Structures are given as structure tokens and as C-alpha cells.
Amino acid sequence: MTTTAAVYAAVCAGAAACLTVGRDEGLRRARLVLASGGVVGRGPRRPWAHWRRFADRLRPEWLCLPAGALLAVLGESVLPLLAGAVGVPLAGRRLRASERRRAEDGRAAAVIALCGGIVGELRAGGQPGQALLTVGRATGALGAAEAAVLSAARFGGDVPAELRRASREPGAGGLAGLAACWLVAVDSGAGLATGIDRLEAALRSERDQRAALRAQLAGSRSTVVVLALLPVIGLALGWALGADPLRVLLHSPAGLGCLVVGGLLEAAGLYWATRIVRAAERS
Length: 283
Known about the structure:
Elements (H helix, E strand, L loop, with lengths): L1 H35 L12 H9 L6 H12 L3 H45 L4 H12 L6 H10 L3 H8 L7 H15 L3 H49 L4 H6 L2 H30 L1
């Protein structure tokens, strides 16, 4: 009798556990459905998911720290680690500038596509406001001001004023020309398609000139990079010849003096060469 009661108790406990687990799973799925709009489950949690999210948040400039730490271990000095820490914000500034330039180029290309799309819609018989509504959403050239510009086009607002406000964002300068064409067409009745077509041609020509100039300056940029890597190449050659250049640079007064003077000269040379290239780009 005792054995039978124990079996019954074990069965009841197992059934209660199964019902509890099933209820918790049902509640979890219900919360997910109500919270995320229909996602039933996320599957099993992976232990490396947190590390992947952490790795995605890391930016390339933080690689200066492990590089400095490696040199600090090899040279048995804390100076490379400090140099790596100082290089993090400098490299981050450089990378952010490159990202801004790519974003500006993409925005300029979107403005050109916007002009071409509006011309196509107008020549197909569409109205200016409807053409701007159709093409503006597709190209994304209006950026943060898209809602204001499209609202003005939809409800008869001041489209040129909204386009001029949108043109203040980086890379969207062509929208000011579009606003001028729109204003002239409204005031004088001139052909809007013809004006925007000429604006598109001018913007394409300007983009091609910038691309040609950057292609011509590619050799100068490569020279700057090679000059920046020459000290590293010199250290590698010293190791290849059996010397210990890091110990000489980091653990002797003459080496520290050469390191400071060489670092200042390297920074000045890079700054000078970069300014020359940027001045050529701006011209």
C-alpha cells in the first residue's frame, strides 16, 4: 500500500510539474505575442548572444588598445599602452569623418536621383506635388525633413521654403537648387521639368568632378599612408636583423629622446601632408 501511494504521489508530482512548465511556457509566449506584435517565441538562448551584441557595439578605433597592450608586453613598458589609449579618440575622429563623408556622398547621390525621378514623373504627365510625393519617399533624399517637405507638397504648403531648410543638412545642397526651380516655376510659370533637368545635369557634373579629383589624389593619399608606416617598417627590420628596437627606444635615455622627437616629426609630417590633400580637395 505504501509503494502504491508513493507511485501515485510521484505521478501527481510529475503531472503538476508538466502543467506548471506548460503554463509558464504559455504565459511566456502570450507575453511575447502581446509585447512584440505576433512573435511567438525567440528560441533557446545562446550563451554567446551577449558577447555578439558587445562585439557589435565595439568600434574599430578600440583596436588601438590591444595593439598598444601587445607592444607594452613586448617592450616591457607602459608607454605603448598609453599611446594606444591616446590613439583611440584620434582614430575615432578620423573614422567618424570618413563616415560623414560617405553619408554626404550618399545624400548627394540621392538628391540627384530625386531630381531625375521628378523629371520623369513630370514628363509622364504627373503634377509637381504628386511627383515630389512619389519620388521623395522612394529616394530618401529629404532626410529628416522628409515629413515637412511631403506635407507641404500634399497640402499646398510652402514647398520651396521646406526644401531650403532640408538643404542645410550635409550633402543636401542640391535641394536648394530644386527649391529655386520650384519657386521660379510657381512665380513665372516656367517649365519645372526643364529647370530640374538642368539642375540634375549640373549636380551630376559636380559629382563627376569630385570623383575625378579624388582619383587624382589617391596617389598622394597612398604616399601619406606609406610615410606613416615607415617607422613600423623600420622596427620590423630591426627585429629581423636580431636587434631589440623596442628595448632601446623605451629603456634608454637616447632611445626615449629619439622616440619623442621622431613621434613629433611624424605627427607634424602627417598633419602637413593631410592639410595639403584636403586643400586640394576643397579647391
